Amino acid sequence: MAKKTSKKEISVVNIVVSTGLEKEIPLEKMAATLPNTEYNPEQFPGLVLRIKEPKTSALIFSSGKVVCTGARTLEDVDRSIQSIIKSLKKLNINVTIKPVITIQNIVASGSIGMDLNLNVLGVQLPNTEYEPEQFPGLVHKLKGTNATFLLFSNGKIVCTGTKTEAQVHEATDKLIENLKKLLDKK
To answer: Which domains, and CATH codes, for the chain?
Structure first.
């Protein structure tokens, strides 16, 4: 089913956060004034702001709610939010609060260092979906956590649903432990 030489390598590739700026935001004015924005209220009520450094994107709503995605570190999250506040200052909108940032999701990817037989895992591993005709990866919801994994036959993985880097590592360690238990049954 799998080679037993597991060397875990996993790193955060995307942190999704939300916050509120506690100010009404004039999205039309923002779109007309600032570069790197997309605003089409007929299709979606939020404005998309692409931030160059750090390379992130933010959805900004007229209520002042913000969803930021694309950061790989919490420092990048903070820099992105500060960039938004700086952009608003150019429009004479002064955000005087320190926004409270809530992590919604962390996505991590890497490798568990073992080849996986997804056909066997699809049958033996609980809480899985595997339809190779539609997608080459196996989807596994790790019991007792919010983590969901994509597993690939070469041992590459993607983990989503966690809210801290520690949770990413705990979930990945538990996944490896569960896979090894299945291997030991063979």
So the answer is: 22-98 (3.30.310.10), 105-185 (3.30.310.10)
